[in-house]
# Entry
Amino acid sequence: MNLKTTYLIFAVLGALIPLIFFANFAADQGLNLVSFVKALFANGAAGGFTADLLISSFVFWIYMFQQQTSGPKPWIFIALNLCIGLSCALPAYLWAVARTNSQEKAAAI
# Structure
């Protein structure tokens, strides 16, 4: 299995697994944004994970905008990051970069 396929598999898993947790939360609490945000910071462990993901996401966004001239446009990956999470957006971005690179190599041959 090549790296591009690995990125794609992790992007799909990174979408499905968090969505299962989000669906369970919504089934228990409803679609209540205030309850969701409170749960993100319910204790030190949850708050630490949330802070880590927020900081990592922000750095990922900065990186994508810096790479915008040679890489994929960042907006779709920011939407994935906000709607699903970094676990989907980051491997999807890496898949898109690998796909673009392999297409450029094929065109050069």
Remarks:
- DSSP finds five helices and no strands in the chain.
- The first helix runs from residue 3 to 29.
